[in-house]
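Q: Here's a chain of 57 amino acids. Please give me its 3D structure as tokens.
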Amino acid sequence: MRAQITCDGVVLGSMVPGERLRIKRAAERITLLHPPGYDYFRLLRSKLHWGRGNAER
């Protein structure tokens, strides 16, 4: 069994049982700009189909 490593839909690699993936904070900081009315959680609900029944998915 393998697990895929992806970032923004781009496959970066794969892992096998027993391997570890280390994620750490970058030294650089960025500021994200969003248009007025942008709702991160509404976007997540839409993409992940949160709040929908199984028949609607």
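Q: Can you summarize the key feature?
A: The CA atoms of residues 13 and 55 lie 33 Å apart.
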